[in-house]
Design goal:
The chain has eight helices and five strands, in the order βββββαααααααα. α1 crosses α2. The chain starts with a strand and ends with a helix. It is an alpha+beta fold. β1 and β2 form a beta hairpin.
């Protein structure tokens, strides 16, 4: 229904962004809200409208490739929009695709809500169906911006966003010590935490 929306990001929370377009504030759920920044610049968000009997949810992605992978993931039994967002939040869909092609269940079960049964279903449903679409995947810039010492809430914002994606307090506690050694912005903490979480078995 909506392919994309262009507007100004006026709010960034752990779960969603608000995109002002022509005086209308669109609440958009995204894999990593902190990949977007509050600026006066016009930003383009690729969208997907998820319709259920009790709610309509607008989901947004920085790239068309992210959205197409999301659409593939939610066709798998056992993966809903929240689970697909958690997988995409890692910022490395090429690794997810590679794991599916290699039938690497150990990698796939590291995502929140993905057990062995769901990982096996992902492989059965998607193996051999993703390569042509995702030969080149552009993801948000991996560079991070250093914060001044006064801006010290970035790590806590990242932790809240990871909790919203379904990671447990136990999992986050394991990586928090490594995060505390760094001085990053919220997106940087998100990316680092996700790299660390995906190394855990």
């Amino acid at each position: 229904m909506y392919d994309y929306i262009k507007g100004i990001v006026t709010r960034v929370t752990p779960e969603y962004i608000t995109l002002d377009q022509g005086g209308v504030g669109w609440q958009i759920m995204t894999p990593n809200p902190y990949a977007f920044h509050q600026t006066e610049e016009i930003q383009q968000v690729f969208t997907y409208l998820h319709v259920r009997e009790d709610s309509n949810t607008l989901l947004g992605f920085k790239t068309l490739e992210q959205r197409e992978l999301f659409k593939k993931l939610i066709t798998v039994s056992g993966i809903g929009p929240k689970g697909a967002l958690a997988i995409l939040a890692s910022g490395i869909p090429s690794q997810v695709i590679g794991a599916i092609e290699r039938e690497d269940e150990t990698f796939l079960v590291q995502f929140p809500g993905v057990g062995k049964k769901t990982a096996r279903q992902m492989i059965l449903d998607l193996k051999g169906k993703l390569g042509d679409l995702f030969t080149e995947i552009e993801m948000p810039d991996t560079e991070v911006t250093l914060l001044s010492m006064a801006e010290n809430g970035a790590m806590e914002e990242a932790i809240l966003a990871l909790e919203a994606l379904g990671y447990s307090q136990r999992e986050l506690t394991k990586v928090k010590r490594d995060l505390q050694k760094e001085d990053l912005d919220t997106e940087g903490y998100m990316k680092l935490a996700l790299r660390l979480l995906l190394k855990q078995t």
